[in-house]
Design goal:
- The chain is an alpha+beta fold.
- It has three domains: 137 residues, 3-Layer(bba) Sandwich (D-tyrosyl-trna(Tyr) Deacylase, Chain: A); 290 residues, BirA Bifunctional Protein, domain 2; 128 residues, Rossmann fold (3-Layer(aba) Sandwich).
- Strands 8-7-18-17-19-20-23-16-15-11 form a ten-stranded mixed beta sheet.
- It is elongated, with a radius of gyration of 31 Å.
- The termini are far apart.
Length: 624
């Protein structure tokens, strides 16, 4: 922040017209004033001043308190002035700082007047001309101000409605996964780090950091792209399964912080925002789909008959995670969130919808053979008033939950549930989530007409039924790692397998029949390819195993002669001679209810280059 101090014998100004859209609204009386014997402080607020506002304002106050007795001025006039620096703060930040400076001067008994912000103004000044009558100052933020610490209280609530302190619960609990969560979150126990086996699987399937980008940004090779596409389509299917109308939308990834609802939502979200400066404005890269969906719905004409309904976007989302916390496929600076917002008439309707949301969330993790341990972040008032509802949710989960109590009215939500798996290294990993939001409808101007024709603000449920796409896949690969630890063959579900069937002709003379098999599989929307390379049969079978192809179809003389196929089942140590129709029927049954997405590679393996992520895996896993 830069200032120019003028000790004025006379000073007057008049606000003529707004200079910016975000100009401060002021009454007619405050659009002009005149003063005698005034310390006029022309103030330019610079980028980042709000981050170190305590330091800046304290130094500014001390400077004014030191100067006033020497000048014997009767009043301090704070005058917004954008011409002392090229590095201007956004308008909303500048006004925030100016109001703060005005307040601390008043709180210290100093007679102060602040001129309107954001207006073209004419002014006239007559300076005394003594040595202290013209002074310039610069105030630097220094270190960023730490966020205010929120006092939280931790409890454990059982499905029977019993309430324990975390330390008391740990003495009687035999739930290892829940105990790990409690020790980390409530008791702040440091957990061991390390690299898990899942990270090897993740790289095997082509999920990699992009070295030519910012830290925490990924690239997705062809195998990884299939997985991403499949989960994106599945999240849309799950949203529609809730039994309410759901609309799929798309939007932009950046929003202007000068707009009040955007700024307030960002401030409530907290830290780790990705911000960029452009064309004189400051933008936040979205951290979920909230801004876009709220911006859309505020323009819709809604009746109570339209609610509840949902909006889903597979939103590219950005969070400025610390470098040391970045984890491939789990904690990134850019990720993809199947973000669903459900608009309900009131809190009671929201609570009813939550039961179905919770059911879907748990059904999906159980399909992987896993379960969640839950953190219920809840305000004191909601915990007291809706205790029975919280207990019912916990009862449906079938195990106790950790409760984190927050002060009332500090966030836009009253309940925010985080669903965690405990991964192979015994670490809690949040995957799915939901929130009950009672503040953002009003903040963004989202309204509906009730039965009487009165305007109401809906209650909004935020949820990611399976978490971000990347985190869901983290859970998939972590499950495979646990299978390997148990001595089983690690696998992923068939609907996610990049290549579901690989056809291997024993000799060139078997290609014609093999191609007919491939074409029939493709007609049935089964992801299949054919390894037509001039390599030994054993090597081609091994490489299909390295890629975790669930079904390997080997075609030789016998298969061509009998019109059958020989199928090797991954992980089961068995092979079976089948008719193609029987095989297709078996696969279709296994894929029932799941999306079918296209192969992202040429169907002939011979047409593919030596993909680095597969080449490295083959070298690491050797010839076996």
């Amino acid at each position: 922040m830069r200032t120019l101090n003028i000790h004025a014998e006379e000073f007057c100004f008049k606000a003529l017209q707004k200079a910016i859209d975000d100009a401060e609204e002021v009454s007619e009386e405050r659009r002009g004033a005149s003063f005698r014997n005034a310390l006029v402080i022309f103030v330019t607020v610079e980028e980042g001043d709000d981050k170190g506002l305590d330091k800046i304002s304290n130094e500014f106050l001390e400077d004014v308190k030191e100067l006033l007795p020497k000048l014997k001025a009767d009043v301090v006039v704070l005058y917004p002035y954008a011409h002392l620096s090229p590095n201007l703060a956004p308008p909303h930040v500048a006004l925030k700082v100016l109001k703060h400076l005005e307040k601390i001067l008043k709180d210290n008994g100093i007679n102060v007047y602040r001129a309107p912000f954001g207006w073209y103004k004419s002014f006239m000044i007559k300076c005394y001309g003594h040595p202290l009558s013209e002074l310039s100052r610069e105030f630097k933020p220094g270190e960023l101000v730490r966020r205010v610490q929120i006092t939280k209280e931790f409890l454990v609530v059982t499905p029977e409605g019993k309430v324990f302190k975390p330390e008391e619960f740990l003495k009687i609990s035999k739930d290892e996964e829940l105990n790990i969560l409690i020790e980390k979150e409530a008791l702040k126990k440091e957990l061991k780090g390390g690299k898990g086996r899942a990270s090897d699987y993740i790289r095997k399937f082509g999920f990699e950091w992009e070295p030519m980008s910012d830290s925490g940004h990924m690239r997705y090779e062809p195998h990884a792209t299939i997985l991403m596409d499949a989960v994106a389509e599945y999240s849309w299917k799950l949203a529609k399964s809730l039994g309410i109308p759901v609309f799929r939308v798309r939007g932009t990834n950046m929003f202007n912080l000068k707009l009040k609802p955007v700024r307030e939502h960002a401030e409530l979200f907290g830290d780790r925002l990705y911000e960029i400066d452009m064309d004189g404005d400051r933008f936040v890269l979205r951290y979920a789909a909230c801004h876009q969906q709220f911006a859309l719905v505020k323009d819709w004409v809604l009746s109570y008959k339209d609610l509840p309904f949902g909006l889903l976007e597979i939103a590219d989302s950005y969070r400025y995670e610390q470098k040391g916390e970045i984890v491939l496929l789990f904690r990134m600076r850019k990720f993809h969130m199947p973000d669903l917002h459900i608009f309900t008439k009131d809190l009671n309707e929201a609570l009813k919808v939550i039961y179905k949301v919770q059911e879907v969330i748990f059904n999906e993790i159980r399909k992987l053979g896993r379960s969640y341990v839950s953190i219920y972040n809840v305000t004191h008032r909601f915990f007291k008033d809706y205790f029975d509802f919280i207990v019912e949710l916990i009862r449906r989960e079938g195990r106790p939950a950790l409760i984190t109590l927050y002060p009332d009215d500090i966030y836009y939500w009253v309940l925010n549930v985080e669903y965690n798996i405990i991964d192979e290294l015994k670490r809690p990993r949040e995957i799915a989530t939901f929130q009950i939001d009672i503040g953002n409808a009003k903040r963004f101007g989202i309204k509906y007409l009730d039965e009487k024709g009165d305007e109401r603000y809906p209650v909004i449920i935020h949820t990611a039924l399976i978490g971000s796409i990347e985190r869901y896949l983290y859970a998939v690969f972590d499950t495979a790692a646990l299978m390997e630890r148990e001595g089983k063959c690690p696998t992923i579900p068939l609907w996610l397998a990049p290549i579901q069937v690989r056809i291997i002709p024993v000799k060139k003379g078997h290609m014609e029949y093999s191609m007919k098999v491939l074409e029939e599989l493709l007609r049935n929307n089964i992801r299949a390819d054919i390894d037509d390379r001039d390599l030994s049969l054993g090597k081609r079978i091994r490489e299909a195993g390295i890629e975790w192809v669930p079904y390997i179809v080997v075609i030789g003389d016998r298969e061509v002669k009998t019109g059958t196929i020989n199928v090797r089942f991954r992980g089961k140590g068995m092979q079976k001679s089948m008719r193609l129709e029987e095989f297709i029927k078996m696969i279709n049954k296994e894929l029932e209810g799941y999306p079918r997405v296209d192969l992202t590679l040429p169907h002939r393996v011979s047409q593919r280059p030596s993909l680095p992520y597969l080449r490295e895996v083959r070298a690491a896993e050797g010839p076996t």
